[in-house]
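Revision sheet: structure tokens.
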Amino acid sequence: MIADLRRIQEEFPTRHISRTLYRNEGQYSERTWSARFGTFHEFRREAGLEHHRGAQRLEKAIATHSARDRYRGFYEIEILPWVGKYEVTHADGIKRILIGSDFHDRNSDPFPLSVFIATAERVQPDVIVLNGDVFEFAEFSRFDKDPRQISVKGAFEFVRDHIFRPLRKGCPKAQIDLIIGNHDARVLRHMADRTPYIVPLMDLMGISLSTLFGLDAFRINLVNKADFSAYQVKEGRDEIAKNYKIYFNTLLVGHHPGNYGISSVGGHTHKPEFKATVNELSGAYFQLTTGCLAKIDFDYVEGLNRYSQSFALIHVDPVKRECVPEHIVFSQNYAVVGGILYRRPVENVG
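Predicted:
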């Protein structure tokens, strides 16, 4: 039986010898070979057409560690130099931190985005935190999408021209931090793996991560504590949850919301939420989850209209370690920031 299976492989050297092909070309019935080998997969293995289990496990382990080495190398060269590079030394007094999450590049909603930028220009915050998922990269997601509409270059250009540039121009002295969210991490892995979507930008145009993101041009810090070599999907999710930063020893900002024991601002869920908590040791603190600044009717995902849009302005007293949140929540056509009413322009209504 084994000799017969090998014979068929020699006759069809470029084909995978499947159960159907053997049924049509082989000399032995399925009942005969299954009585000896159990499964066709085991039949192929005994014939030497597939690796034995030990060899398969070894190959998988080698591939896993090779990928981890590649990711670690990419992190050290392309990401680590920009972690905290443009930290600003702040003077004494009350600090203002403007926090927005889930812009999703070209899927940003022009109205909330414009209010966020206008607030930055008017308030002149000490720190602007882009709290994850500034990029969307649906190209790399599990969702169905039209390949004809894929433009990785266009996504980078949108973020640089419509988010980073106006924020830096309007707030030249502010510290701008970009916390890596789960969507942002997608492109980092594709850059490390040099996939077809990214290679033309990196090789043909000679562009690095810092250039694509505009980190040097707009003096932007990366915030990334995640182990970039996490291989399994669950490992990756757990690592992204570690991407947070503590400001003025008082406020924690991270892409994934959670109870950290101090006042915190999260995003990710696209669902605004506020919880007040009291700790016997540290006193009162809050957990604020901001909504998104993206559109709530993405064309590739149904049901996103159940989400809401918002951002936060946090006033921090570093001495007393107290902070007061302003949560700016959008209705369909309005938002109020500091007593100023913003109305969605007619051309953006829809």
